[in-house]
Design a protein that fits this description.
It comes from Microbacterium nanhaiense. There is one protein chain. This protein has a domain of about 130 residues: Tetracycline Repressor, domain 2. It contains 9 helices and no strands. The model has no long low-confidence stretch (mean pLDDT about 90). Helix 1 packs across helix 4, helix 4 crosses helix 6 and helix 6 packs across helix 8. By secondary structure, it is mainly alpha-helical. The longest helix is centred in the first third of the chain and has 28 residues. The protein is elongated and about 55 Å long. The relative contact order is 0.10.
Amino acid sequence: MARRGAYAKGIAKREEILAVALDVIARHGYRGASVREIADAVGLSQAGLLHYFGSKDELFTAILVKRDEVDNADNTGDMLEDLVRIVAHNAEVPGLVHLFAQLSIEAADPTHPAHDFFRERYGFLRRVLAERIREGQVDGSLRPGLDPERTAAIIIAATDGLQTQFLLDPTVDMAAELAALLGELRA
């Protein structure tokens, strides 16, 4: 059934806010993108914008959820190659990388609005990567001696660590380094 009325308008406005916020943060960075700037860009007051999200932290968490949706829209089916593609894209949007890194640290606090997002995201990534590694071992594309769960955790840690290195030194080629690591896993 199609959603109608104020509810559908609210969903559409929320999606518009997230699309604009992705662009604002990508252009101005996490520190340079204020709630006021995002609100102005979508024609709302700050209070009006936060009506859709509850708080600044909930807004930023929703931005990361939207970023993941956008990043995963072009998946090819080869998760390892898709991961390298996404990391290469991240180099073009350092503000979003900074937002992700900052919120992931803050979300270590169980009371932070992004805590569940990051717990679920990392759990999902570990499970899916481990399964992809098992499949690669069966089809012969990945080395047979790898422990899938441990290797998945290492890939995620390497990806996050490369993002931190990139934020400190933008000459770090995150995608090339990740591709080299993943190349070591190939049979």
